[in-house]
Amino acid sequence: MSIALGFMVLISCSDDLGRCQAEPLTSPYFASKQECDEALEDNMLNVGAPQIFGACLKVADRSVTMSDLTWRIDSQGDLVVVPNHTRGSMLVASR
Description:
Helix content is about 15%, strand content about 40%. The protein has about 100 residues and is mainly beta. The longest helix has 13 residues, at about 35-45.
């Protein structure tokens, strides 16, 4: 039986969303997605940028990294994170 971990994604952007970047995290992994969700707001508050977006994903193990994901801020101002290997499944998280 595999246990799903939580993986945190934090994106910082300029006011106009013209420049965005993934924020490096010391450890983006959590024991569960729920634990990640509970820590998300505090982590977002610790990033000093005009616009901060965050999301927690369920991952199978600690081999997942940011390079395994594609992210973008859509026209509605939401963070969309897509695993590179399955372009069809998405997670959407508001700022």
